[in-house]
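dumping the sequnces here before i forget
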Amino acid sequence: MDPEIRERWQHRLTTLWGEHIPLAAAMGVSIARLDGHALEIAAPLDPNANHMGTAFGGALQALATLAGWGVAMMVAGPRFDGHVVIGRSHMSFLSPVPGALHARCLFPSAPKQAAVQSALAARGRARIDLVVTIGTIADGRLPEQARLEGRFVALGQPGRGAAVT
Amino acid sequence: MDPEIRERWQHRLTTLWGEHIPLAAAMGVSIARLDGHALEIAAPLDPNANHMGTAFGGALQALATLAGWGVAMMVAGPRFDGHVVIGRSHMSFLSPVPGALHARCLFPSAPKQAAVQSALAARGRARIDLVVTIGTIADGRLPEQARLEGRFVALGQPGRGAAVT
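..and the predicted 3d for all of it:
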């Protein structure tokens, strides 16, 4: 990913979540990693805990939704002039998340990204299906302690410019 | 529902969400209605808004999860000594939620509640499948602007005492 594009998206998403989505601010969401492969975002456990001392299921869903939404926005393109909404999601809670929350969403393949751009140009609407892995990092790895499969819908024109990755 | 049982659950859920689940406190979750038919909880729009001025999808999922979890706890029984976790959920976002968030979860039928009690007594484990309707009240009605279908799992012994409704 071009460093300038990464910088711009990091700023855009961080500003949006920190200043315009109060719940994301309350959760303490930050960007842990952004490159051509994935967007990974994180949040500390304390504001997102349940009464058992593990992550609250609602917080896991919210974090996963933000990760998928961020990737969908980026796939819609740097000059996308519309907005992205979530259409439906399926969440599997596989085991308790015992510490800081991480949510990782891989970018779709280049052909899938191109298909999104084409659909936006042709119809002003495109579906973007994404999978998000959620868990607590251990030994440098992110175990799949929860998984979100989400369908996002981009509505608008792609504008000029290539896909993000 | 017996007024004393209702009072006890209102206090228990309100205390739990207000004092032990920080995100529920940040959302401003309160109990709007609790009777033998349904648990309905609410939250103001402002702390749960997105940058479009409607409800953030993550907040809708979190509120729906709390409503379902509350009903699952009550179905597990007033003397249930274990805990309830969410196993999986499917969320449909049907239209934007434009104002204060309401989530309503109906109690399962009496035979289904009895089956949960039996499963807990026999195996210390019971599945509780629930549907939650989410939207903004208009003209005294709650439109289905989002829907959660959740599978909750109660783990523990039912203890003495009848089902809640």
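Chain B has a mean pLDDT of 94.
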